[in-house]
Specification:
The chain has 133 residues and is of the alpha+beta class. It is 32% helix and 27% strand. It contains 2 helices and 5 strands. The protein starts with a strand and ends in a 7-residue tail after the last helix.
Length: 133
Amino acid sequence: MRFYTERQAAGRFAAMASMDSGQWPRRIGFIIGGRATWLAERGAESLGYFKTRNAALAAIAALEPFICEACSYPSHAPHHCDNPACLENPTIPESHKVKMRAAHAAHLAELAAADERRAFKARLSADGFTAAF
C-alpha cells in the first residue's frame, strides 16, 4: 500500500492511498494547515494536530484496514490477509494451498487447450476446410 498527498488548494491536501498493483488511488482523508501545524481529518472526524504533513499522513494511514497486495482484499485482520481464497492467507493450511495451486494449474491447462482448438479450427477455415461433409 502506498500513501501520499495531493495538493487540493492553498494549505489543503488530500491524503491518498493506492495499491502497487495498479489499483486506482482513493482519497482516505484531508490534511489542512501549513508551516508547523497540520490538522489531519478522516471524514468528519479530526484526528489531531501534527508538526509535519508526513506525521498527519501517518495518522490517517494508521486507520486504514490491511489490504492484501496479492488479491486486493480489504482484510479484517490488522496485519495479514484473511481472504479464504488467497494464497497469502497465513491461516489456510499448506495442504489446501497446494490443492488451490493444482486447481489453478488445471484451469490454465484447460484454457490453453481451448485456445489451441480455436487456433486449429481457424487454420482449417483459412485453408478452405468446412465442417460440412
